[in-house]
């Protein structure tokens, strides 16, 4: 049994990567993320060297805060753009802006221009980077069909994030050893432009979104904040993400100060330390791929958060170069677990129409936490010394993860229940073309209905107000008083009256005790007709069913239209 279980997990891991590669849209979206985040990490290392040379550890912290505060304020306000239309278009604009800002920074450094201009360009680049992840995180569910596929996509993105965490600093370290900071900036710019080119080729059917007038950005941003405010689960995940990000901000300072002052590794040592985080992240992402099918995402999220802090504290206790490299690799493992569990949980808990805005709230928290973490590390180094600062800041995440353990385990149960509803709906052919956000929108609106044997669900000629899926039991379909068909578990009925806005064309009678899941007419038609592939499937289904058992004339004497969606 153990071997079979291990083989099953390995098959799921291989399937996670192969499914992303076979899907051209997912492949391009994922590779664009690799380019964007390689650019971000290389840029961060180069900027850290510029700041340290200009003003030491305090300048490092101040620049970190300067980069993140505008992003923290503007990310939630700008994120509604990604909920209004095509999310890949937002990503293209963001990538081009980042590339342009980084190119100019390279020129300023090359000609020994004002450092303040480099800092201002860093703010622009960081603001664009802050917009990238919410839009990309909201795009991925649209390109997926199941929760398993979304978890796979987040594992793959986590691996690419890890590769970027390794490659970005490593490239920076190599280039700094032979050239200078301006070359690192130039390479980062090229990676951003490559990300934009990949996104231009993404093609997909956009999921249905509620129609209505566009309001001002502040009000739309407020809806994202309100969605977080209504969900204790989202509050918990975002709160822990903020703690992890505070530690990440501190790490941008520690990587330089520890390398130069504590371990004597020189400037390139900062890139080497961050590259060790990348090595651990790559290995952690490969290990996380074995967890694609797990139902314990909340528990693994807690482990990931804890691993962001504990290694830093241990570096403070054992300040040796080899030990630091090994321990920081475990930070990368924690990052991989957060990518798998955290982003999947947020994607499963958030309605598609608000997805980018909720991820925008997350990025705002991340941005401000990184800035606070950077300045906090600088202050605590001055107050407690490098060793003491590492221990104090490193203890934060493990303590919070332990305190949140039971709530996160409870969250796993609610996501599992949603998965069961999605699986039931996906047995209905009409719903199979729907992307994950759309079918989850249906699943969240399901209402349980119990029908006793011999009782009617509805009668021919009744007004159509709901669509039904059979969870358990059997039902007879009667047309003009005779049994035309018998339906069982996983089959749906009631769509003809909803899609054609006519009275019921048949009677449905419970043959056995029936456990049904019902959808209101509005929710059903908004989703099914709002997404082109499911609308086409619905049209075919209605035609087939009319030919199978519907009378030529409807109960009120009107002749049935041959256009099922007329």
Automatic annotation (TrEMBL):
List where in the cell it is found: Cell inner membrane
**SUPFAM superfamilies on file:** cAMP-binding domain-like, MFS general substrate transporter
Q: Write out the biased-composition intervals (Basic and acidic residues).
A: 547-566
Keyword vocabulary terms for this entry: Cell membrane, Membrane, Transmembrane, Transmembrane helix, Transport
Q: Which residues form the Cyclic nucleotide-binding domain?
A: 430-545
Q: Where is this region: Disordered?
A: 540-566
Q: How does the UniProt record describe the way this protein sits in the membrane? A: Multi-pass membrane protein
Spans traversing the lipid bilayer: 31-52, 58-78, 90-111, 181-200, 236-260, 272-292, 299-318, 324-346, 358-383, 389-408
Protein's recorded name? Cyclic nucleotide-binding domain-containing protein
Q: Which source organism?
A: Microbacterium yannicii
